[in-house]
Amino acid sequence: MTVPTITLNSGFTIPQLGFGVFLVPADEAEKAVSEALEVGYRHIDTAAIYKNEEGVGAAIAKSGIPRDELFITTKLWNDRQSGEQPHDAIRESLDKLGLDFVDLYLTHWPTPEKNTFVNAWTKLIEIRDAGLSRSIGVSNHLPEHLDRLVAETGIVPAVDQIELHPAYQQRDVLAWGADKGMKIESWGPLGQGKYPLFENPAVVAAAEAHGVTPAQAVIRWHLQKGIIVFPKSTRKERMVENFDVFGFELTDAEIAAIDALDPLDGSGRVGTHPLEFN
Ligand SMILES: NC(=O)c1ccc[n+]([C@@H]2O[C@H](COP(=O)([O-])OP(=O)(O)OC[C@H]3O[C@@H](n4cnc5c(N)ncnc54)[C@H](OP(=O)(O)O)[C@@H]3O)[C@@H](O)[C@H]2O)c1
What we know:
Blueprint: E1 5-7, E2 13-15, E3 19-20, H1 26-39, E4 43-45, H2 53-63, E5 71-76, H3 85-97, E6 102-107, H4 117-129, E7 133-139, H5 143-153, E8 159-163, H6 171-180, E9 183-187, H7 201-210, H8 214-224, E10 228-229, H9 236-243, H10 252-259
Parallel strand pairs: 3-4, 4-5, 5-6, 6-7, 7-8, 8-9, 9-10
Antiparallel strand pairs: 1-2
This protein binds NADP nicotinamide-adenine-dinucleotide phosphate.
């Protein structure tokens, strides 16, 4: 199965479908990532705060898969944004992952009250220039944060990884990205199982029309919108299911019906709001 790639503003490409490891316990990460690599995933999304980078690294090392065939993302945690700390943080992450470089390094949250996210971004630029991350981006940044990054550094993030699923679509961030050449990554693409997405009539109708599961229909919705997506599962059969999404295509009407599931008042959000996370 060939996963489509998306070209980032760095010129590097990213597999549009990957495997996320948030809430995969440290002692299960090696097994989960090994299974994901067996299934065919080549893009892994971790973070320092997930505390499972060693397990991810162990699975990568054992897999024997050439480094160039893998796309590894990790993230700078919020308490390392100031001063030169991002430089220490990336080296610690690389040590844990057993890698010389990551493909993508992200500032995890803007934590606006601390007002250190612009400093973090300047350090990520240095980290990229030092060859420790091929591409750099952000996570949970709103247009007001993105505007500041660009105003103060002139560098547009390669991606913004944001909470995005049918009930919470963050169209303002998507519009910013489309305007500036920044790609969007969905976190919580299945709503983290926190609302009955898979029983929603629009999702069920799309799934039934193509003989697929509701989760597959939702992943396909992300992909057809040009978004990068990495659902998490520690169950191998679901890793297989979530990867088997290239044999069908949702119609424009099915996409529009899922688009309409966002109440547009922010009430579909399942995670923390970036302005409230400090
Ligand atoms: N940047 C950020 O702030 C941030 C925040 C959250 C997440 N993320 C990233 O985004 C990735 C994905 O988001 P997420 O893990 O929060 O949520 P998610 O992928 O939307 O949902 C994961 C949940 O859905 C279940 N699931 C997976 N596949 C399923 C299927 N086919 N059918 C039914 N249930 C299924 C999983 O359970 P089982 O494991 O039991 O299968 C798990 O409970 C994370 O792993 C992480 O890499 C980033």
